[in-house]
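Can anyone check this?
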Amino acid sequence: MRTIQSVGVLSAAKIMGLIQGSLGLIFMPFFLLFAALGMAAGGKASVFGGVAGIVLAVFIPVLYAALGFVAGAIGGLLYNLFAKWVGGIEVEVGAAPAVSVSYPLQTSI
């Protein structure tokens, strides 16, 4: 067994920012759909709400990424602190299987 004694705070923050930003991109079409449905259902009075929904849908991935970055940094810092007190996460690491690569024959024409 191997123990993860610490994590790079910036690398954890970058990965979490990318993961959360990707989730924001996945959720964005739903926000756009709901904004369009709200504008269609409300008539002229709901145009401002629909435009605000569209702006929010575009802004959501950026917001998710920023919050994911901050949460990843805080999580990395807390992991490093707690790992000093109680030890890190134990993982079992095995050898990678050998991979053989064969290239097709190249012929000149």
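Reply from J.R.: I decoded it. The chain has a mean pLDDT of 85.
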